[in-house]
Amino acid sequence: MGLNPETLLFVLFSLGCVSSALGVVVIRDPIKGAMSLIACFFSLACLFLLQAAEMVAVLEVLVYAGAIMVLFVFVIMLVENKSAAIVRNTVGQRLALPVKIIGVAMVAYAFFDFIRRTPFPGGGARELPTGFGSVASIGHEFFDNFVFHFEMTSVLLLVGIVGAVILSKKRKGQP
Question: Class of 1-82 per CATH?
Answer without folding.
Answer: mainly alpha
